Amino acid sequence: LNELDKYIEEYKTLFDKGTRRQNNIVYTQKYKRLWYLKKKFADRKVLAPHNELTEITSEVKRLQKDIRTMSSVELMDSSFKRIQYVRYADDFLIGIIGSKQDAEEVKKDLTAFLKNKLNLELSSEKTLITHGKMKARFLGYDVTISNLQAVYKGSNSRIAKRYASNKCEIYMPKEKWIGKLKELKVLKIEKDSSWKSIHRAELINSDNLEILSIYNSEIRGLYNYYKLAKNVHSLQKFRYIMKFSMVKTFANKYKLSVSKIMKKFNHEGNFRISYTTKTGQKHRYFYNEPLKRVYENPTTNKEIDIVPNTMIYAGRNSLIRRLQASKCEWCQTENTAIEMHHVKKLKELKGKQLWERIMIARNRKTLALCKKCHVDLHAGRLD
């Protein structure tokens, strides 16, 4: 679609018009009147009668309220037009400062270009003309134009300032993180519309570190994608459901209550898994970093929009699926014949060998091995 980029770039040179919007006459008049009244009040607050000062104060407040709802420039100035374009793969968004007629004309020209030059059809159902105050969906974000009328005072200032209005803002759609919960099968919506977190049966036979790592990866992945959104803090609810789904998964694994699991893995108020490596004991915590908005994206990671691969934390648990994987769980050899090593009871394993400790940690009585590794295991050479 490089041709489309070049076309829009040329189109922009013809479409853009004017250097700046004209001043809003009504706004200017009210602002001048406000300035005059403030000066009059300052000059006469000692000598003027009380009722006159009250009238001035009342009018000042009314003018300030009016000004906060107005723009200092003409938003629909026909002498000022702009077009902005952004594209990712085959998904693009065009922003226009102009009339609806201008937007319809751009859509018409774009449709003709794609059909005549690139032999592509522009979907009329998906290509919508949306007012700036409404939300347009782009790359999973909702894009809109702010219309704030609130004011604020700086920490070291007594002067009230208006928040920047008519600025582009991006939001995380609520249905995106709810849809993710449903996709992961960790959320159940009851008949009374109440929410209930549920365990993930497919993870019960994974070891503790795998379970925790999978949940952390899924939370971190969604946050990393939506951390530019103004309402990214809404992911607190997503994390809450994920946390209790994880706790219930551990509860099902250990046949304990949720409260006992929380007590078992609690460390200073945080959920923690401890594990041992060659360098000693280590700990990993449930993802508890602030889910705050990032105003500028500093990342240079080219894989930022790739869905997290949670399979690196958990092997295939189903016997059939592990056989179908044709991958040895010990030496990681792929596309080889797989044999299953079975033990009758996990409690019979002493944990002296590494493969025994792996089976104990995963709470699994089977191990998928290639023929060589299986022979080495029975010969005592696997470690």
TrEMBL record:
GO molecular function terms attached to this record: RNA-directed DNA polymerase activity
One BP annotation, GO: mRNA processing
Domain annotation Reverse transcriptase: ranges: 1-143
Keyword Magnesium attached: no
Keyword annotations: Nucleotidyltransferase, RNA-directed DNA polymerase, Transferase
UniProt cross-references to Pfam families, sorted A to Z: AI2M-like_HNH (PF21368), Intron_maturas2 (PF01348), RVT_1 (PF00078)
InterPro entries: AI2M-like_HNH, DNA/RNA_pol_sf, Domain_X, RT_dom
Entry protein name: Reverse transcriptase
Organism: Bacillus thuringiensis
